[in-house]
Task: inverse folding
């Protein structure tokens, strides 16, 4: 086995600048969309007083959840000492930071008053999971930055295991915090289940790994670096395990609700009568997001790079569908202010399914968050040696666990 | 002499200037202190009081929306030419007509912020913008609200609204702002005056329905406390144990 070396991206090709320009253009459009929404107010969006969180939150939460999941690759190498994952640790860490910043950018720019970010950073209500999340998100960036430093700096290598373990624990708490945003709202049928917190951790494993594969294969192809099947097949097996775990948690979440009579109406809404939410649940989340990619990974197509890109792409799309159903579908289902009563008339949509259709600016803002994450990763890999020169099979110990 | 008098004059001038500035600073500081003392909120708001509403659904007339109209008018909630869609417009109080699924009995009633003793909106607010006053009134500090809308996710009564557009012609006593969340404030500008009543309660009384009684739940001699002691009443979603300040009769 040869010694692993790392280097910066060359960054002189026309393709490199075209990539940066393309991503920069998406970010510029997203900033324009954010300005448009802030200038006019949220009436130009599809969000309203019934469905208060919309498409930006689907993007933001996907990116934040995927961020903690993307760090898993590094954690498996460091904390669980799997040698084959260790060369990927640097890229995993910087991608995790970039995804988180991308998600936070979307979240902050959708606030009613993004100019008051300083208040969110200085005035805390410690009973609010949101306030804790602000600390967890900022802390994640700092902890992973130190972890990367210890990983990359030979003199600090002796503390690398401690930093890696701290980062691993921190990311578990962070995803628990993100899941808890939805786990403890007694007001809404969709969100009063504590299982959502661990479920978000499992989702982060799948989303983060799929996003990492979508980054890794093109990055190695475009920079003309070798990427052997040894690494890819290992990631493939891991992804199939995570897909199965998300499926398991989804089944348990809905079975639990189906057992509780009080939640039958909500389950009927999501599983049968919810229109777009039912369609997204079955077709987007279950079939295209879980069953098809799981099957693909065990078919010959799944062993190829194209197959892995398609599989990972489907997991990401399925993740968006899942979060759309949880976030938007959960709000669209009417709040029950009057149990056992039928609503005859209302001045404020009581008992009615909340209407929401995402507007273009919301979607553009979300895409901007994805572009921010990618630009940060590309620029970081340009200035510091985050990528191994080669991940060819002869550099990877095939017998390593 | 002239050589030595120059520095002396200068130092005297410096001393006088310094003294003047010090006295101005002290005086203005004292002035600020006095005015801050005069407006001390503790003088008017006390935890000895818990403001509440009793709504008698038997008295509330179906089809009457005087309470909603009065609220909108006094707080300047609705502009003549809104950009927002109906689902985006603010609603501090609404009328709902319900029918019991078992018995078929119909009721009409107003719903507003229930001013909970344990408000979920205050629990989830990251910046402490949502807060409960000592006298039980749940409010939003518009200077601290960042417009995250988590309180709207948490409220079991759909009592809160997000301001979706730029506002003009606001009322001085009810400051509002685009990008922040708002809800019924029990007309604090009225009830903080001795004997003041919220606009909805006044309108209900003027319409002759008297379906809304406002008062101090902690004062055993108040009309609301006596009615609650003598007659059955319920909270909305009592299973959540939020102990709202708004109670209902006849449901």
Result:
């Amino acid at each position: 086995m040869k010694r692993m070396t790392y280097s910066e991206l060359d960054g002189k090709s026309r393709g490199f600048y075209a990539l940066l320009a393309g991503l920069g253009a998406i970010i510029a459009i997203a900033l324009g969309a954010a300005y448009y929404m802030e200038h006019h107010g949220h009436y130009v969006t599809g969000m309203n007083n019934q469905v208060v969180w919309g498409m930006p939150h689907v993007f933001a939460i996907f990116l934040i959840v995927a961020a903690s999941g993307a760090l898993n690759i590094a954690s498996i190498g460091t904390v669980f000492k799997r040698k084959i994952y260790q060369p990927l640790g640097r890229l995993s860490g910087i991608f995790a930071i970039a995804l988180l910043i991308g998600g936070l950018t979307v979240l902050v720019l959708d606030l009613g008053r993004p100019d008051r970010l300083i208040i969110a950073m200085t005035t805390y209500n410690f009973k609010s999971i949101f306030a804790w999340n602000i600390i967890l998100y900022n802390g994640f960036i700092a902890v992973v930055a130190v972890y990367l430093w210890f990983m990359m700096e030979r003199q600090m290598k002796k503390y690398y295991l401690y930093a890696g373990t701290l980062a691993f624990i921190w990311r578990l708490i962070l995803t628990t915090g993100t899941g808890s945003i939805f786990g403890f709202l007694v007001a809404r049928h969709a969100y009063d289940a504590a299982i959502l917190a661990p479920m978000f951790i499992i989702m982060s494993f799948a989303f983060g790994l799929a996003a990492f594969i979508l980054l890794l294969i093109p990055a190695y192809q475009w920079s003309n670096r070798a990427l052997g099947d040894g690494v890819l097949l290992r990631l493939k097996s891991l992804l199939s395990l995570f897909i199965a775990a998300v499926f398991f948690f989804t089944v348990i979440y809905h079975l639990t609700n189906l057992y509780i009579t009080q939640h039958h109406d909500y389950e009927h809404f999501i599983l049968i009568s919810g229109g777009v939410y039912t369609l997204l649940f079955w077709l987007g989340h279950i079939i295209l997001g879980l069953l098809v990619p799981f099957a693909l990974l065990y078919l010959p197509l799944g062993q190829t790079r194209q197959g892995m890109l398609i599989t990972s792409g489907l997991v990401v799309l399925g993740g968006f569908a899942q979060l759309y159903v949880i976030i938007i579908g959960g709000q669209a289902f009417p709040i029950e202010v009057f149990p056992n009563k039928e609503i005859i008339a209302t001045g404020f949509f009581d008992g009615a399914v909340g209407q929401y259709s995402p507007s273009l600016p919301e979607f553009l803002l979300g895409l901007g968050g994805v572009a921010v994450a990618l630009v940060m990763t590309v620029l970081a890999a340009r200035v510091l040696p985050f990528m191994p020169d080669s991940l060819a099979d002869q550099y990877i110990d095939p017998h390593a666990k | 002499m002239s050589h030595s008098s120059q520095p002396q004059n200068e130092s005297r001038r410096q001393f006088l200037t310094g003294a003047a500035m010090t006295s101005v600073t002290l005086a203005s500081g004292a002035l600020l202190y006095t005015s801050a003392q005069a407006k001390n909120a503790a003088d008017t708001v006390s935890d000895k009081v818990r403001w509440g509403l009793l709504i008698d659904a038997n008295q509330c007339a179906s089809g009457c929306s005087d309470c909603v109209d009065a609220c909108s008018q006094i707080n300047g909630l609705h502009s003549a030419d809104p950009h927002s869609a109906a689902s985006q417009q603010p609603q501090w109080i609404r009328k709902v007509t319900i029918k019991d699924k078992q018995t078929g009995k119909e009721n009409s009633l107003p719903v507003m912020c229930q001013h909970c003793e344990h408000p979920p909106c205050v629990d989830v607010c990251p910046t402490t913008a949502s807060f409960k006053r000592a006298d039980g009134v749940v409010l939003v500090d518009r200077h601290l609200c960042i417009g995250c809308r988590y309180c709207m996710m948490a409220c079991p009564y759909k009592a809160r609204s997000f301001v979706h557009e730029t506002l003009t012609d606001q009322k001085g006593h009810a400051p509002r702002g685009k990008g922040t969340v708002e809800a019924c404030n029990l007309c604090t500008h009225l009830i903080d005056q001795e004997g003041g009543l919220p606009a909805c309660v006044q309108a209900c009384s003027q319409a002759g329905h008297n379906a809304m009684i406002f008062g101090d739940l902690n004062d055993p001699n108040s009309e609301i406390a006596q009615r609650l002691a003598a007659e059955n009443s319920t909270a909305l979603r009592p299973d959540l144990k939020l102990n709202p300040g708004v109670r209902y009769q006849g449901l």
User: Anything to note?
Assistant: Helices of chain B lie at 2-38, 66-75, 120-124, 150-154, 188-191, 199-206, 223-230. Residues 1-5, 30-40 of chain B have pLDDT under 50 and may be disordered. The longest helix of chain B spans residues 2-38.
